[in-house]
Amino acid sequence: MEDTYRHKGLRRKLVESLREKGITEEKVLAAMDVLPRHFFLDSAFAELAYQDKALPIECEQTISQPYTVAFQTQLLEIKKRDKVLEIGTGSGYQAAVLGTMGARVFTVERQENLFHKTRKLLADMGFQNIRCYFRDGSKGLAEFAPYDKILVTAGADEVPQALLEQLKVGGMLVIPVGRRAQKMKRIIRKTEMEYMEEDWGDFRFVPFVKGTEPL
Ligand code: SAH
User: Fold this and answer.
1) Is residue 32 part of a domain?
2) I need a labelling partner for 198 at 20 to 30 A (CA). Which of 6, 75, 104, 159 fits?
3) Any atom of ligand 1 within 6 Å of the Cβ of 111
């Protein structure tokens, strides 16, 4: 796949539109400006890659809308070398935004098909700081815990206990919670025992599903 001047121009416009919609974190905007989103889509949808829209990927899943990716990433206050767990690898775009920002990313996907495809894509793109796992994310990824940040990119009915436990003290979990529509929650682990929860507004995600879906 190629990243042409035309793609770069469309991407610059998308980033400007995200700025107008209220995304202010320059590091997030810079990562989305360099990362070719069309690489993460089937060729049939590549033309639409730089519209601010969610689009279909395999296994009836979606690549999140760019605004949503920017919003969740901004909420995480990513610093270089942060250890980040993402639940819901999907296309890999969100993981790649985090990776471009210098985070060490562990990403988990329950659809084996997507897991294989995306792991290869991210490796081919040269991301050495992103590791992909085929797992049920409701259990987190205990062997590498604790994490500075945890991000869930599917709509969960409730906050999985394992994710709260796998967060560092001082760490943050960003998770959309709700059945049909979701409230974006940011949960900060204040001490071993105390968590503070913030509400960041309404979003819509594909459902968070327990268990894995093998090939
Ligand atoms: N971050 C992705 C968004 C993909 S949509 C991107 O940038 O493209 C959400 C993804 O979460 C889907 O691929 C879905 O299969 C996955 N998912 C849902 N429930 C899950 C769970 N319990 N564990 C791991 N992945 C899950």
Assistant:
1) yes
2) 104
3) yes
